[in-house]
């Protein structure tokens, strides 16, 4: 499951700043997560055996719940234009699904259920997902997919690249011009949180590890931890430096909590208490000052003069509302 939810919002429809998102704990949706907890006490040895033998969860409940929520809706039918990264293990290639692309390429117009199951298929936690799509001329395409976080744990640059692709296609939803003219972009990247910097691994310890220890050590998965953190951090650094170099750093807003501890930093501890704790952390995050990553230390540092995350979101919403109103007036004038 990707580290962050990235929104590419170059003039797309949006609510005004009076309608910032409200986070609601939905008991029905909570079933998806609480199922993950139905495992008993396991010793470290049993955990290791489980990791070697197969994924931690078979995913059947999660898959059924996703299908019951999405029905037969395909990605081309979504109300909002979305972009979802996955990774094809057969061809060792990232596969990016998007609403725009699905409308032009029938073989990429997969059911939302298949896409959601695929992008949630985190290695060691859930099994890979296989499905086929069909085109209008009886052609078909196979997909052998796992979690998109393998390729894009922070999908910010994926979103930006897909928008550039639509500009090249002269999509009327976007201003015509150079596809890499990022001065016209507004990007919100919302992270799913990372553990507080705890110096988890050291070079002297890692130097003694064989294959198994790199895969599993003391309840942790070092190799996966390292790859996922490196992938997400590199994207954040790249995006941050890119917007700073164009003198429009305020157009890139990264909201991330890098101080999670205990159960709140886990991947699959989804008790009601932990879910409520995460919601509380999210609400508190809105009140915290805008921060940007220090490219030398990887630590988020407060940016003077830009207010709180909530205030920054309100500014973005106002810009989008004004843009939508302008486009509507221009359309009516024709």
Automatic annotation (TrEMBL):
GO terms for biological process: defense response; lipid catabolic process. The keyword Hydrolase applies. It is an enzyme of class 3 (hydrolase). Pfam families: Patatin. Keywords: Hydrolase, Lipid degradation, Lipid metabolism, Plant defense. Its EC number is 3.1.1.-. Coiled coil: none annotated. Gene3D superfamilies: Cytosolic phospholipase A2 catalytic domain (3.40.1090.10). The keyword Nucleus does not apply. GO terms for molecular function: monoacylglycerol lipase activity; phospholipase activity. A motif (DGA/G) lies at residues 147-149. The nitrogen atoms of the two glycine residues in the GGXR motif define the oxyanion hole, and stabilize the oxyanion that forms during the nucleophilic attack by the catalytic serine during substrate cleavage. Belongs to the patatin family. This is Patatin. It comes from Oryza meyeriana var. granulata.
